[in-house]
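Thread: "does anyone have the structure for this chain?"

Original post by V.I.:
We have the sequence but no experimental structure in hand. Need at least a predicted one for the grant figures.
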Amino acid sequence: MLCANRPEGFVSLIVLAITGTRLSPHKSLNVLRGSRFRDTKTTPEAETHQLAAGDQPRRRTKIHKAFLIVYYLLILAQILMCILEIVRLSLAHLGVGLLPFTFVALVTAAAIRFTKGLEGRVYGWRYLNLALWIALAVTNGVKIAEETKEGTGARKGSKYPVADEITDVSVMIGVYAVLACLEVTLRA
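Reply from O.Q.:
Generated one for you, tokens below.
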């Protein structure tokens, strides 16, 4: 009954039903998501929806910028902690192992985030960064477990006691966890 009163006819009604259920929610989901990739054709309803939102995108960009600033400051803190650990291990003549590669991974992750996956050339770059933060946290967790087995009293007279190393690595694990959370929170 509802369809019989429409002047467009049966074929137009099917097209209207398809576009109404398929395309309109797609556009509104893009608006809600804040996606950069919107359809080039805008309807008056979409423009009205965008105008009705007011300064919502502006507020969202301020929060996004604040999260990005925290993200990059945490990466800088990790780089400095990595340098600190390399220097302290070198001074204690304990060897640095693969820590220089951690430094390179931190700089690479920051560059990939800053360039948004080198302008879309790196597929799934957000997941790669997330995997990096998780892998670094797990690796450092294993390091803490091994140092705990060694005992906090070991290397007590050295320039880098185990207790100090456990503290440094624990802080790094916490920062990696926060970076992983921020990676999930930040969209682009």
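V.I.: this helps a lot. DSSP finds seven helices and no strands in the chain.
O.Q.: and The chain has a mean pLDDT of 76.
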